[in-house]
Model the fold of this input.
Amino acid sequence: MPREKVVNIWDEREVIYSPERWRYLREKREKARRIMERLRDFDPQIYGSVARGDVRRDSDIDIFIPYRTPGYLIELALEGLVGRRRIVMATPWHLIKGVIEVDGETTVTFPLIDPTDRELEFYRWGGSIDLEGLKAGKRAPGVNKRLILIIPTERGHVEREVVGRESEVARTLGVSVDIVTERVHILRRRDSIGRTGIYINEEVPDWMGFEEALKLIADRDPNVRRKIRERGE
Done:
C-alpha cells in the first residue's frame, strides 16, 4: 500500500461517506468489538481510523491495552486467535510493547513496562474509544498519518489541517501541545526522508512468554535495560 504523505494545501473540508464506506466501518468495528469483549477485563481501546471512522477497505484494526498486563493473561483471553507475537520498540526512547497479530489486519498491543502519560497521549492523538463507546456507536476525533485532524460527523467527517493550529488540535483531542508538536515533527521528517525503521521488532518464539523474551533482549541491549530501570521494573 502506498505510504500516505503529509498534505498542507487547504484549511478545512467535509467528507461525506458512501454506503460502501459505512459498510466497511460497521464490519471493522464489529470485528473489533468481538475481540475487545474477550479483553474487557483489561480496559481495551480501539484507536486509529476504526475509532475515528475514516476507514478504507484495507484499514487495520488496532486494539491496545493501556496498562502493563502479564502477556499470558492476554493470550489466554485471546485463546484460539493468537498468531504471530512480537516485541516492538520504535526508538531507544519509546515504550516497549508486546504485539499479538490476530490476523492480517488486526493487532492487539500492550505495554511491557509501565507507560507514561505522554506515551498514552499517542493513542488519543490518533483517536481512541473504549469498548462501551464502541458498542454505543461513538467515534472519536484524531489525527491521521497525513497530519489531518478528523472530526466525525453524522454524514462522515470534517478534515482540518493540523499545522498552524496545534493548540486547537490539542484542546480538541485532550492532549498536550507538546505531543502535537512532537508528532508534527516526526511525521514531517518521515515524509521528507522516509521511514527510518524500528529499533526493536523481534518475534517471540512459540515456547516463550513475552516477559522472558524481553529479559533476553535486555540482557544484550543496554538501551532496553536502561528503559526498564527507568520504569522501576
Observations:
- The chain is about 40% helix and 20% strand.
- Residues 12-215 form one domain.
- The two ends are 38 Å apart (CA to CA).
- Residues 19-38 form the longest helix (20 residues).
